[in-house]
Amino acid sequence: MNVLIVSQYFWPETFRINDLAEGLMERGHSVTVLTGKPNYPGGALFPGYGLFRPVRQEYKGAKVIRVPLVTRGNGRGRRLALNYLSFAAFASLLGPVLLRGKVDVVFVFEPSPVTVGLPGIVMKRVKRAPLMFWVQDLWPESIAAASTMDSEKVLAWVGRVVRYIYRRSDKVLVQSRGFINSVEKWGARPDDVLYYPNWAEALYKPARPEEDAPERRELPDGFRVVFAGNIGAAQSFETILAAARKLQDRPEIHWVILGEGRQRKWVQEQIGKLGLEGRVHLLGRRPVEDMPRYFALADALLVSLKRDLIFSLTIPGKVQSYLACGRPVIAAIDGEGARVVEEAGCGNTAAAEDADALANAVLDMYEAEPEEREEMGRRARAYFEEHFEREKLFDRLEEWMDELIGGKR
């Protein structure tokens, strides 16, 4: 098949769509990616990129076509809106000009913004190919939940855009079953909605760092609760810090944060104000290929989100990565993500934004026997292999694409 991926984000930015492109090529398909200039998450263009260059690149055999956009800057307000709208506009205008050749199926990756669907629809019409739209983030609910938009007129406009896109998609894929009601409410036809969860890249697997591994020297001695990912408002670091403060009488419990984000400076300041130096450790971002080694040295892996209906409907992407690495999980989240951890029997859960519950979940994990934690890790990996294993999910996607284009394998 000739697959066209439309995504505002792509390598060298770190998103799961990179692995999807690679996986399709591993199976013999031809992949072209229509994307923007890389600037996430820092807000500035990556070194080597300009507004109008390069236009064409290659990523592990995939053809990459890049269009201009307004960089996201500080990731707020009008600048972020311009970032979203500029990619949609330039990709819609330049995509048909820059992209030559046959396309069998258009695949749109939508972690945010939903406007990425607009150039997808344009390419569907120009190439006369069916459109698959993979929903990672629910709009307009997510922007309302994140408090980035409070205008009813703007939200109503976004709702009309969402409805327009869903109704013109041949298949709407959702990363969580909790998304189904929303996408149907906003115009997706029930028969065309498919559950397609995230997986974890093949590099995520149980690891055994050597005794002299550099990761061992970076991490504090003691019981390690490791959080990996974005340091932002959605992750409710207020709750993490409050829970850490409640466990100050347990100096052997350490909270290790691997990642960067908009709230990094605030978290650093709070660590000082709350007297959590030496207990909460901000190590910064690490290469994705190194993460399994850090995870292997964790006694528990932490995922957290704010208390909000929209967040309760999603399965945070890090859950699959945690499970794949076979470590116990502590989930301070509601809804679908907590259900996965409980169903897998691989850790402890706490209600979102409940610092007391999170502190108790960590304390229970700390007091558990090492053998019990190891068994949680084994159950995590087993659940991942049954529900989120990469090749199984690629098989499923390949079958759906074949059915959509009327081909037979």
Automatic annotation (TrEMBL):
Protein name per the record: Glycosyltransferase
Keywords attached to this entry: Glycosyltransferase, Membrane, Transferase, Transmembrane, Transmembrane helix
Pfam families: Glyco_trans_4_4, Glycos_transf_1
Record domain Glycosyltransferase subfamily 4-like N-terminal: where: 16-199
Domain Glycosyl transferase family: residue ranges: 220-381
Protein origin, superkingdom: Bacteria
TM spans (from-to): 81-99
UniProt keyword annotation of Transmembrane helix present: yes
GO MF assignments: glycosyltransferase activity
